[in-house]
Amino acid sequence: EILVGKLRQKTRVINDRGKKIGIVHQIQDSGKTIEEATRGMQVAISIREPTIGRQINEGDFFYTDLNSRHAKVLIERFEYRLTKEEKDIFDAILLLKRKDDPAFGYL
User: Fold this and answer.
1) How far is CA 45 from each of CA 4, 22, 33, 61, 102, rounded to the nearest angstrom?
2) How far apart are CA 14 and CA 5, in angstroms?
3) Whole-model pTM?
């Protein structure tokens, strides 16, 4: 289920510990492939690389993975476009990424 924001094909995702999970290969809604899923939709996704039961489990939460440069641009130019919920999730992603790289989103 998409709880906040949107999910698109070819998006890199991380788990709630900041570990890279993989890239969303395909999104399906009611058996039909779609390009994008939005808040509230319950969809099936295929992710390249992880193994269910090893790297991912039922009930796991995933976040969009972004690089430091994209985070900085979002902060400097587009943060005003985020809803409060999206801003809260973005801040959570920044905290996860800054555990490994304290300068994430600054440089």
Assistant:
1) 16, 12, 9, 13, 31
2) 15
3) 0.85
pLDDT, tens digit, 9 for 90 and up, residues 1-28 = 999 999 999 999 999 999 999 999 999 9
Calculate what percentage of the chain has a pLDDT beyond 70: 100
For 34, phi then psi, to 5°, come to -130, 155
SS3 96: helix
What span, in angstroms and rounded, lies between the C-alpha atoms of 48 and 45?
A: 10
Closest CA to 28 of 48, 50, 45: 45
Chain-centre distance for alpha carbon 56 = 14
